[in-house]
Description:
34% of the residues lie in helices and 10% in strands. With 346 residues, it is an alpha/beta fold. It has a domain at 47-239 and 274-314: TIM Barrel (Alpha-Beta Barrel).
Amino acid sequence: MVLTLLRQSSPLADAQHQREILESGDGWPSFTEVLQNHGQNELTACGIDVLQLNLGKLCNQTCHHCHVDAGPDRREIMTQQTAEQCVNVLRNSAIPTLDLTGGAPEMNPSFRWLVEQARSLGRHVIDRCNLTILQAPGYTDLPEFLAKNAVEVVASLPCYLEANTDRQRGDGVYQRSIAVLQRLNALGYGKAGTGLLLTLVFNPGGTSLPPRQADLEADYRRELKARHGIEFSRLFVITNMPISRFLDDLLQTGRYEAYLQKLIDGFNPQAVDEVMCRKTLSVDWTGRLFDCDFNQMLDLGVYSTVPRHISEFDGPRLSKRQIVTGRHCFGCTAGAGSSCQGSTVS
Length: 346
């Protein structure tokens, strides 16, 4: 089997290489085969509840497990024209939620415009925030902007312990994140009755599956309240997906085969029904359509039987589309399941 992931200069070539690694290997079943072995059909969409926009790969951080391979040196970014096409889809459909991600989505020049347009249409807006961006020059007024527009903040905090967080996301990230969470709390985020949702996100520091979401949420509440006086609305746990930087790390440390086997062995048929691809449509920075953010990073666009760009949006057809799958999908169906909304099985 492949032992090294060679970085390519072209993002497409890199995605192709990752797909080849994931789909190679003797003795490993395909995701489709495992579905069939459990009496389940190929995945199909059952509506579009979330329009998720990846606004680009520009970010103020370079995190160890980032599946987007984002960072300060990336220049891929959604244009205003593409952003307008996305708003037109919201205007002409009943999709209730706009989910903004990146990179650091706040670094896209159209971020605030997108928020205001979606809120004026009565849509729920999610900002997938790394927290530290809210301390960066030019962005320090964003907490007030987010609160004014009742944007849900979904914030990555890999652990309530400083050492574990900094090991995954960089030195000093924990303390800066805590300071931002305290500021968000001061604005009403995470407080009962304010309507300002503050969702925290946990992902493991290594090759283990996440613990039970409800149990870890209780731990986070206890520790963050005791240590820093922080409150939040809920916690999502997300499995590390074997793509991009995490795949690179698995290969370089010789842990890839064991991790993929763990995901395959952990397949839970009950986790399949609520995987995010069934009710989410993902849009990349160029406007191309994908079944999920992970497929986007592997350049696995929606099937050619449906529109493949946001400018060609067709709600009825896309709402019932067949979903493109691969071995990486075991990451969303292992254990209690994993999605952008946390565990798929209570």
